[in-house]
Specification:
The chain is built from 13 helices and 15 strands. It has helices at residues 3-25, 40-45, 60-79, 97-102, 130-140, 172-184, 232-243, 255-260, 275-288, 307-312, 343-355, 357-364, 371-376, and strands at residues 33-34, 49-55, 86-92, 110-115, 118-119, 145-148, 161-166, 189-194, 208-212, 223-224, 247-249, 265-270, 297-302, 322-326, 331-333. β7, α6 (172-184) and β8 (189-194) form a beta-alpha-beta unit. α3 packs across α5 (130-140) and α6 packs parallel to α7.
């Protein structure tokens, strides 16, 4: 028998084993896979996309969703029959309390999305219909890589880009690149140059992967991946560090998920015609304030699009840039006598939030000379300010978005 025979035999044996494992770890009761402590980890590890309906039998809204989700699961199985692609699963939170606790489920039904075994940043909050679920799955499984046919130039002004140059699309490096792109497609654009037109961009049989920030970021953020491009973990960590920057842009689309992170916002409102001020702000934060990322979310915001919160501060687009801390209770404006180009002033602003000084002065007026005023050599307390209530807390998800809590019945 020749080598080809044994290769075919080994491949068939592998497919038989994989199919058996898939059925064992994906017991189907109805069309959605019933997940429990025995099969949940294997299901997450062996599928590119898993969507889980966390339900409770006593919940009326869970009962309404169940037949819809089951029908959607059936249609998805028809569209994607191959193992390892997508699973719609369900968890009975009363009987599988450890899984419910692991995913921090407090409302029913809650629908979680997991990509390559990791929770997506956004829960599913779309329309709860069969068509909507199927459309969502199709969107998630679109190819996250755009292939280019010529040498790739600069990215769009708002886009962060990862681009790889590959010998061919069948290589292990390309498949790893695609898996990483699936994880981060909402945070970066992923491009690939393949074959002859790009051989000048990389040595023979070697893959080159580069990160290019948006034009509002300093050139110091341009990076080339120096690790093993066939190592998923190292490439995923590198790409995540670059695609999820220290300073992020807040939009109406991502405000809810950023709000859910629970950290106060330090917002840099800018004019869209002034990219240089954003570059400078990012440079200052990246150079001097990295250690503060555990205390605040550093965000930039288009001051024209987000005109409403600025109006609450008595500001207009002609006043930009404007710096604000939104604590989700109040909005505190960066002191007028301070300079955002001085990182010590920004650090003091954050310190004053956590010491309670900003809140205390909101209610009682300035009680002492601030550190910022000492830097400037002023001896008189600043004029009392009355910061408005938080604007961005209104963009957070409702505490009762899905249904009532069990103890509220």
């Amino acid at each position: 028998m020749n080598q080809n025979y044994w290769k075919i035999f080994a491949n068939k044996l592998f497919l038989l084993f994989f199919s058996f494992a898939y059925l064992f770890y994906n017991p189907v009761t109805g069309n959605a896979v019933k997940l429990n402590s025995q099969n949940v980890d294997m299901t997450l590890a062996s599928n590119e996309l898993v969507i889980i309906n966390f339900y409770a039998d006593w919940c009326r809204f869970s009962g309404i969703l169940t037949p819809i989700f089951e029908e959607a699961a059936a249609k998805v199985s028809e569209l994607y029959p191959e193992p390892g692609k997508v699973v719609l699963g369900k968890v009975d939170c009363d009987s599988e309390t450890s899984i419910a606790s692991r995913f921090q489920i407090t409302k029913y039904p809650t629908i979680k999305v997991l990509i390559n075994g990791q929770p997506a940043k956004r829960e599913y909050r779309g329309k709860r219909s069969v068509e909507a679920f199927v459309s969502f799955v199709q969107k998630q499984l679109e190819d996250p890589i755009q292939e280019v046919s010529s040498l790739f130039a600069a990215a769009d002004v708002k886009s962060r880009v990862v681009i790889g140059y590959f010998e061919n699309k069948d290589s292990q490096e390309y498949q790893i690149f695609r898996k990483v792109a699936t994880n981060l497609k909402d945070d970066c654009l992923f491009y690939a140059g393949v074959g002859e037109p790009f051989r000048a961009m990389h040595p023979p049989n070697e893959t080159i992967i580069e990160f290019r920030p948006d034009r509002a970021s300093p050139k110091s953020e341009h990076h080339t991946f120096r690790g093993n491009s066939a190592d998923y973990d190292s490439l995923n960590i590198w790409a995540t560090d670059n695609c999820l920057p220290l300073v992020r842009e807040i939009t109406f689309e991502n405000a809810e998920e950023i709000t859910e992170e629970g950290l106060p916002f330090l917002l840099f409102f800018y004019h869209p015609d002034d990219m240089e001020s954003i570059k400078l702000f990012k440079e200052i934060v990246g150079t001097y304030l990295i250690q503060e990322k555990q205390r605040v979310n550093f965000l930039t915001a288009d001051g024209v699009k987000f005109a409403h919160p600025l109006q609450h501060l008595g500001k207009r687009h002609t006043d930009l840039p404007v710096i604000v801390i939104d604590s989700f209770k109040h909005m505190y404006q960066f002191p007028a006598k301070s300079d955002y180009k001085n990182h010590e002033h920004l650090k003091t602003f954050i310190d004053d939030l956590y010491s309670g000084k900003l809140h205390r002065e909101y209610h009682l007026g300035p009680q002492e000379i601030s550190a910022i005023e000492v830097i400037h050599g002023h001896n008189q307390p600043a004029e009392q300010t009355m910061p408005p209530e938080s604007t961005f807390k209104k963009l957070a998800p409702s505490k009762n978005r899905y249904t009532l809590l069990k103890e509220e019945l």
